[in-house]
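User: I'm putting together a small comparison set for a docking exercise, and I want a reference complex before I start. The sequence is below, and the ligand is zinc ion. Could you produce the 3D structure with the ligand included, as structure tokens?
Assistant: Of course. I'll restate your input first, then give the structure tokens for the complex.
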Amino acid sequence: MATAIPRLFARAPQCCGHDMHRRPTRSNENGNVNRPHYRCRRCRDMVFDDWEGIREGNPLCFCEEVSRGQVESGYAFVFRCARNECEFKEELVDED
Ligand SMILES: [Zn+2]
Ligand SMILES: [Zn+2]
């Protein structure tokens, strides 16, 4: 079942000079139940290994890649680098 989820990364991304470790999450602390992700054992940084929130038409991040839109506490909706490779952040402003 988990294999049906298309991966964002062809191979493990690097963080702190090492490969990050891939695993599904069972936590729902951020409302992200069982989404596969990579986590760095050193700095605890993490990045999702799926395409959720990545849509054509999203703003491009500093890597010139389509960003990932997501809901975060403190923001209505925010776009970030899909692969966590740059510091891009753009908040979606509702205009109604
Ligand atoms: Zn790290
Ligand atoms: Zn980027």
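Residues 1-51 form one domain. Residues 61-63, 65, 81, 85-86, 88 surround zinc ion (ligand 2) (CB under 6 Å).
User: Thanks, that's exactly what I needed.
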